[in-house]
């Protein structure tokens, strides 16, 4: 049961209820769709990139609490960062949720640390990384929808 | 909670299924994912072991004793299936891998031989992907069209709409007997009657129904009936396609190989008679024997007893879940099997599934391979608790407590 509490922390539920930057970004210059065919989670991620800096970021879509909260936190953590830094954050986040013994730079991750409980639920890791894979696709300018499979 | 007299002793039945003693996260397993696959009684596990320990060999054409034993066991299983669904002949029972392969077989043989450009195939809005995609592949290849019988909000077919879909171009009707996502049991007798009045053959997808409803293919009058062994308390990897002998005789073969031939030269091959014509290669012999054992087991419990206990469980589960304000049942047909599909306000099915699992409760969450149906209800997914005759009212109470836990977590 403590694992469940670790997973569904209050801050995660709060992001689920009131996701940040949950809208269409009208002046986006990059965009990607992500889809998890196993559970039907779907996300569209919008980026406004200026001189290799993520000037603005927003998302739309539907999914479980974990995918929604993860997307919401993503927008907060990469906004104003360079593309290189965003990639660094993704790497750190990926290690956090897949490897409980990983040497994680908590300063880099900030609030994302609250998603560490996912590591105890291997079936839910895909929910947490969907938005991040979609971010990568948007950065790389991929047209095809990203899937977790 | 009201108690009533059990039609049979559930506690004793549960003793037959070793896995039901398992603990999940330290809690007793509450297995409510029977529509995905059922658990196996010891009798089926023993039959598999016994086959490999005492009878294993390849079937047919062998002159040695073991081959004869294996052939007897394999053909014995075919006869058990015939009796179970009351087919007229043994040769109308084709062993396949499962329902999916059974439907693909019909689409690729009967379908390719009889359906052409502009022809129409009718399915329903509540089909599993396995009764949609094989027909789409055929339509794509032949330039035929797929027509879909719509449903009402309760998840019942609109038969008037079905009647108006039947046209001079309709060549085939393929309909699910019991919906995996909603539980709806369709009025298949009427569907068949209307199709047959126009000489259109009908396939029933019996993947769900076979474990819950007594099946009599002659009384139903269907032309094809497909089901999977593993949803009938048997092993995975084996299933059955029933087909009317005259149709099967006329159909081209599905796969080429050994067993399905009468004679082969490099110039010409003569095909074997049914059912062998459709059983190319070495079949899942042990699986078929295991399916035979599952049928024996189900018969010993009694399909009528199973159906009446599941009906009682469904009524109890429907009542308990309806009491929870944040739960909305999806699939409320008057005539339905023991499936409780639902969504919850504020909590996504995936999150519900994770929290229930922590309580030892196994449910399925997702689109249940019925995405067009999910679209019909405007939900991306549901939580599905599917009941079998070894489930108890106490387990439904545990499910309700699990749902309370979900509400507690998500109301923080």
Explain the overall architecture.
The complex is a heterodimer of chains A (149) and B (412). Chain A has 149 residues and is an alpha+beta fold. Chain A has a single domain, classed as Sufe protein. Chain: A (Alpha-Beta Complex). Chain A has six helices and four strands, in the order H-H-E-E-E-H-H-H-H-E. Chain A has helices at 2-7, 10-17, 65-78, 83-98, 106-109, 125-140; strands spanning 30-36, 41-50, 53-62, 146-147. Chain A has a four-stranded mixed beta sheet with strand order 3-2-1-4, with helices on one face. The longest helix of chain A has 16 residues, at 83-98. The mean pLDDT of chain A is 91. Chain B has 412 residues and is α/β, with parallel strands linked by helices. Chain B folds into two domains: 10-40 and 302-410, Aspartate Aminotransferase, domain 1, CATH 3.90.1150; 45-300, Aspartate Aminotransferase, domain 2 (3-Layer(aba) Sandwich). In chain B, the strands form five sheets. A seven-stranded mixed beta sheet of chain B has the order 4-10-9-8-7-5-6, sandwiched between helices. In chain B, helix 8 (217-220) links the parallel strand 8 and strand 9. Chain B is globular. The model of chain B is unreliable at 1-6 (pLDDT under 50). The chains are: A alpha+beta (149), B alpha/beta (412). The interface between A and B is medium-sized, with 21 and 18 residues.
What is the number of helices of chain B?
14
Helix content of chain B: 40-55%
Q: Would you identify the CATH H-level superfamily of the largest domain in chain B?
A: Type I PLP-dependent aspartate aminotransferase-like (Major domain)
Oligomer: heterodimer
Based on Cα principal axes, name the global outline of chain B. globular
What is the spatial order of strands in the main beta sheet of chain A? 3-2-1-4
> Percent range for helical residues of chain A?
40-55%
CATH class membership of the largest domain in chain B: Alpha Beta
User: Could you tell me which chain pair has the largest interface and how many residues each side has?
Assistant: A-B, 21 and 18 residues
Structural class of chain A: alpha+beta
**So what's the CATH class of chain A?**
Alpha Beta
As for the CATH topology of the largest domain in chain B, it is Aspartate Aminotransferase, domain 2
Q: Which series of helices and strands of chain A comes N to C?
A: HHEEEHHHHE
Regions with little confidence, pLDDT below 50 for 5+ residues of chain A:
none
Q: What gyration radius of chain B follows from the Cα positions, in whole Å? A: 22 Å
Strand content of chain B: 15-25%
Shape of chain A: globular
Structural class of chain B: alpha/beta
Q: Helix segment count of chain A?
A: 6
């Amino acid at each position: 049961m403590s694992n469940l509490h670790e997973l569904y922390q209050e801050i995660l539920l709060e992001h689920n209820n009131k996701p940040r930057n949950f809208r269409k970004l009208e002046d986006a210059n990059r965009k990607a769709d992500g889809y998890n065919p196993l559970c039907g989670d779907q996300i569209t991620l919008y980026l406004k990139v200026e001189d290799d800096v993520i000037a603005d970021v927003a998302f739309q879509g539907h999914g479980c609490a974990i995918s929604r909260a993860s997307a919401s936190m993503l927008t907060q953590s990469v906004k104003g960062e360079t593309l290189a830094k965003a990639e660094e954050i993704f790497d750190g986040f990926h290690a956090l949720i897949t490897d409980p013994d990983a040497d994680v730079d908590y300063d880099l991750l900030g609030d994302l640390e609250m998603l560490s409980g996912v590591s105890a639920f291997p079936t839910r890791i895909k929910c947490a990384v969907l938005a991040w894979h979609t971010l990568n696709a948007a950065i790389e300018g991929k047209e095809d929808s990203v899937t977790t499979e | 909670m009201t108690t009533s007299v059990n039609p049979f002793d559930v506690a004793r039945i549960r003793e037959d299924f070793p896995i039901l003693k398992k603990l999940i996260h330290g809690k007793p397993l509450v297995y409510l994912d029977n529509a995905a696959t059922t658990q196996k009684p010891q009798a089926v596990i023993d039959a598999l072991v016994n086959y490999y320990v005492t009878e294993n060999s390849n079937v047919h054409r062998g002159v040695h004793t073991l081959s004869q034993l294996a052939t007897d066991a394999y053909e014995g299983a075919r006869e058990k299936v015939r009796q179970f669904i009351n087919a007229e002949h043994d040769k109308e029972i084709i062993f396949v891998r499962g329902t999916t392969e059974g439907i693909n077989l019909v689409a690729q043989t009967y379908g390719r031989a009889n359906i052409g450009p502009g022809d129409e195939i009718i399915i329903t809005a509540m089909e599993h992907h396995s009764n949609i995609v094989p027909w789409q592949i055929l339509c794509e290849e032949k330039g035929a069209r797929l027509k879909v019988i719509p449903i009402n909000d309760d998840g019942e077919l609109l038969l008037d709409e079905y009647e108006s879909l039947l046209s001079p171009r309709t060549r085939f009707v393929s309909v699910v007997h019991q919906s995996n996502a909603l539980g709806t049991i369709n009025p298949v007798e009427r569907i068949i009657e209307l199709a047959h009045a126009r000489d259109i053959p009908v396939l029933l997808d019996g993947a769900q129904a076979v474990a819950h409803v007594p099946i009599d293919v002659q009384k139903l009058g269907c032309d094809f009936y497909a089901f999977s062994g593993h949803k009938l308390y048997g092993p995975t990897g084996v299933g059955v396609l029933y087909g009317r002998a005259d149709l099967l005789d006329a159909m081209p073969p599905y796969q080429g190989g050994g067993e399905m031939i009468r004679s082969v030269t490099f110039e010409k091959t003569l095909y074997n008679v049914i059912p062998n014509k459709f059983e190319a290669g070495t079949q899942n012999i042990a699986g078929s024997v295991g399916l035979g054992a599952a049928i024996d087991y189900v018969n010993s419990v009694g399909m009528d007893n199973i159906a009446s206990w599941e009906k009682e469980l469904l009524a109890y589960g429907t009542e308990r879940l309806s009491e929870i304000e944040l739960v909305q049942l999806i699939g409320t047909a008057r005539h339905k099997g023991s499936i409780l599909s639902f969504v919850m306000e504020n909590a996504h099915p995936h999150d519900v599934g994770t929290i229930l699992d922590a309580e030892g409760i196994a449910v399925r969450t997702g689109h249940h391979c019925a995405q067009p149906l999910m679209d019909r209800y405007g939900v991306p997914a549901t939580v599905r608790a599917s009941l079998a005759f070894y489930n108890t009212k106490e387990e439904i109470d545990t499910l309700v407590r699990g749902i309370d836990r979900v509400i507690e977590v998500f109301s923080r």
